[in-house]
């Protein structure tokens, strides 16, 4: 009974959230003095300037078209044995044109058994979602996919 | 005292054995305010209020951590996997940018 009520409440809250504008500024629309973190700066900060390889081992699933930029599902799956010797250390989810390009990072361990992470993000407008993956050997992989956002920005 | 937040840990599938890899989903009711939106009534900007850090532990040992920004959707959802080593307790500790700390636990009960 408790769980049913929780889900009811959650669905109601999410339905309200889904009809609201995402209130996410795009980097280009941010006011002059705003703290904008562009994707290039964010990626540099993460990789320390190390080479990043676009890799088919990184499966990034996002909708081609998001009717609502407030709730865009993102799934990342990295092919990896996830053993102590070879595992996915981190998956960084970024948005190429948001005022803050960073969305969420997950730091995994072998107990996770799969290089998998899913979440839902806000996109201020049409842009790429980027999955930047750090492996245990220190190398970086990348996958990016465009998402067309029909309702985005600050309304 | 920290405000109690509604959250839920879900294991998928619900029935699993030792050695199975399951999904561990975590959902929490949280406004995830970006700090760029105006309150329509007052005209003031609503201050940023979002979950910024999450730690998943098994019997007190962290196995997954997350850094989260205001760009994650309201009432955020997060999903990772876990190979079930045996009976135990999964705990999710999370904090937001105001320093509010919360925790949620769920018993891991593999069948066989």
Question: Which class of chain A in CATH terms?
Answer: Mainly Beta
Spatial strand arrangement across the major sheet of chain B: 4-3-6-7
Number of strands of chain B: 7
Beta content of chain B = over 45%
What can be said about the biggest beta sheet of chain B? 4 strands, antiparallel
Radius of gyration of chain A: 17 Å
Identify low-pLDDT runs of chain A: none
Oligomer: heterodimer
Q: Helical amount among residues of chain A, as a percent range?
A: 10-25%
Biggest sheet record of chain A: 6 strands, mixed
At CATH level 2, the architecture of chain A is: Sandwich
| Overall form of chain B | elongated
Provide an overview of this structure.
The complex is a heterodimer of chains A (155) and B (112). Chain A is of the alpha+beta class and 155 residues long. Helices cover 17% and strands 36% of the residues of chain A. In chain A, strands 1, 3, 5, 6, 8 and 9 form a six-stranded mixed β-sheet that branches. Chain A has a three-stranded antiparallel β-sheet with strand order 2-4-7, with no helix packed on it. Chain B has 112 residues and is an all-beta fold. Chain B has a four-stranded antiparallel β-sheet with strand order 4-3-6-7, with no helix packed on it. Chain B has a three-stranded antiparallel β-sheet with strand order 1-2-5, with no helix packed on it. In chain B, β6 (88-96) and β7 (101-108) form a beta hairpin. The termini of chain B are far apart. The A-B interface holds A 3, 6, 9-10, 13-14, 17, 20, 23-25, 70-72, 95, 98-100, 102-109, 111-114, 116-122, 154 and B 6, 8, 21, 27, 29, 33-34, 36-37, 58, 63-83, 85. β6 of chain A pairs antiparallel with β4 (61-68) of chain B, so a sheet runs across the interface.
């Amino acid at each position: 009974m408790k769980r049913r009520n929780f889900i009811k409440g959650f669905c109601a809250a999410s339905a309200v959230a889904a009809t609201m504008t995402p209130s996410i500024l795009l980097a280009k629309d941010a006011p002059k003095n705003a703290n904008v973190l562009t994707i290039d700066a964010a990626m540099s900060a993460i990789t320390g300037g190390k080479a990043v390889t676009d890799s088919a081992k990184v499966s990034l699933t996002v909708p081609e078209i998001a009717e609502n930029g407030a709730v865009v599902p993102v799934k990342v799956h990295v092919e990896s044995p996830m053993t102590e010797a070879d595992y996915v250390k981190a998956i960084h989810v970024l948005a190429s044109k948001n005022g803050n390009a960073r969305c969420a990072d997950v730091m995994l361990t072998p107990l996770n058994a799969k290089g998998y992470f899913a979440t839902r993000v806000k996109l201020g407008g049409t842009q790429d979602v980027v999955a930047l993956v750090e492996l245990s050997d220190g190398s970086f992989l990348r996958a990016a996919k465009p998402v067309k956002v029909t309702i985005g920005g600050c309304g | 005292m920290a405000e109690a937040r509604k959250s839920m840990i879900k294991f998928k599938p619900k029935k699993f054995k030792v050695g199975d890899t399951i999904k561990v989903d975590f959902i929490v009711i949280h406004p995830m305010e970006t700090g760029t939106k105006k309150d329509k009534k007052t005209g003031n900007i609503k201050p940023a209020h979002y979950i910024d850090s999450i730690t998943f532990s098994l019997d007190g040992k962290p196995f997954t951590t997350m850094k989260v920004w205001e760009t994650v959707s309201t009432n955020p959802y997060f999903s990772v996997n876990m190979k079930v080593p045996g009976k135990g307790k999964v705990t999710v500790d999370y904090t937001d940018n105001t320093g509010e700390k919360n925790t949620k636990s769920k018993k891991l009960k593999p069948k066989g």
